[in-house]
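Entry for the shared binder. Reason: the reviewer on the internal report wants the predicted structure included alongside the sequence.
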Amino acid sequence: MKRLPKKKSILTTARKQKLDREIELLKRLDPGHPGNNRDYSDLQNQELVISELWSLWYGERGPMNERTLRAIEESLGDPDLWTQAEKQYLALIDEHCGAGGNE
């Protein structure tokens, strides 16, 4: 069955704000970033930032995809399921980004 080409995403104001937030959070993974809480250790700051990134990423694609990602993540505790988990991750990537990564 032939797949229809994915529609190109339009960069809305809301999407741009989310991307700006994602970029800021990624920058804050740098322990020396001035936006990090100086009262926290580097590890605590990074854990907070990663938690915010996951919330942002989960929120972008809705609760069904969040459940799917969390289920895949839970399966990573069993090395025998890693191949299956990789296939599930790749299926999600293909579903949301297509082969060309346009979204």
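Summary line for the report: The CA atoms of residues 79 and 85 lie 10 Å apart.
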